[in-house]
Amino acid sequence: MACTHRPAPLRLALRRSLQTPAARRSGLVRLLVVAALAGTYAGVAAPALAQWKWRDADGRIQYSDRPPPPGIPARSVLARPAAPAPVQARAVDPAASPAATAEAASGARNVDPELAARKRAAEAAERKAEDERFARERQASCARARDYLRVLETGLPLARVNEKGERENVPGAERDAELRRAREIISSDCR
């Protein structure tokens, strides 16, 4: 007895629907849409995997998921990964400047150069303001110490108020100690 295989009704209906020219065109359109979406996804996903971007010695832009080779200067690195990459051991040139070494050590961070420049400028302005404040405090301390030294050198009796609120004279030994202290403050703050 011969076994006859009959296609399933769904398969048969699908086969018949694809036999018309319009159906074949719509199938082709679907295939093209799927291919275009796959190509777009691949085009978007490929750079996402290549997190490092740098300009090589010939001027060509290179993409990689690994940091650039040690011979590439930090200024040629155009993009770094968002998350810190694992630190790889690199040969350090002993003749390299400390600034270049510090820049290479910070290479794992993804920093916008303009943002970094603004941050450095803000930090420099903050340091300058702190230095100016410190200089003003030293000048004020110097002026107070010079005034106090002038009073001590007059030889007039010195008095202070004790914890009971009573006025008492400062003994000669303490006056000499105060003279030394005022001179030390002047020598350190009045430069």
Structure explained in plain terms:
This is DUF4124 domain-containing protein. InterPro entries: DUF4124 (IPR025392). This protein has 191 residues and is mostly helical. It has a domain of 76 residues. The protein is 55% helix and 9% strand. The chain contains 5 helices and 5 strands. The protein has a 3-stranded antiparallel beta sheet, with no helix packed on it. A two-stranded antiparallel ribbon has the order 4-5. It starts with 8 loop residues before the first helix and ends with a helix. The model has no long low-confidence stretch (mean pLDDT 77).
Helix content: 40-55%
Please tell me how large the radius of gyration is.
40 Å
Structural class: mainly alpha
Query: How many β-strand runs?
Result: 5
* Average pLDDT, all residues: 77
Instruction: Give the SSE string.
Output: HHEEEHHEEH
| Count of separate DSSP helical elements | 5
Main sheet: which strands, in order across?
2-1-3
Low-confidence stretches: none
Distance between the termini: 118 Å
Q: Shape from CA axes?
A: rod-shaped
Task: Report on the biggest sheet.
Answer: 3 strands, antiparallel
Question: What is the beta-strand fraction?
Answer: 5-15%
Report a brief summary of the structure.
With 191 residues, this protein is mainly alpha-helical.
Write the layout of secondary structure elements.
Layout: H1 9-17, H2 21-49, E1 52-55, E2 61-64, E3 77-79, H3 98-105, H4 113-153, E4 159-161, E5 167-169, H5 172-189
Antiparallel strand pairs: 1-2, 1-3, 4-5
Helix pairs in contact: 4-5
